Amino acid sequence: MAVWSPLRFNCGRETANRFAIAPLTTDASNEDGTAAEDEIEFVRRRSASGFGATISSATYVAQDGRSWQGIGAAHQGHLSSLHRLAEAMRAAGGLAILQIYDGGRIARPDLIGEHSMRAPSAVASLRPGARTPRAMTSDEVDSLIASFRDAASLARAASFDGVEIHGANHYAVHQFFSPRANHRADHWGGTLAKRMNFPLAVAEAVRDALGPKLIVGYRVTPFEAEADGYTLEDAKLLCNELSRLNLDYISISLDDYRKIRPQRETRVYHGPLETNNIPAENPVTALARVIAGRSAVMASGGVGTCRDAEGAIELGADLVAVGRAVVVDPEWLAKVRSKNEATILAGLPKDEREVAAALSIPPRMVEYLLSRPGWIPRL
Ligand SMILES: Cc1cc2nc3c(=O)[nH]c(=O)nc-3n(C[C@H](O)[C@H](O)[C@H](O)COP(=O)(O)O)c2cc1C
Question: What's the 205 CA to ligand 1 centre distance in angstroms?
Answer without folding.
Answer: 25
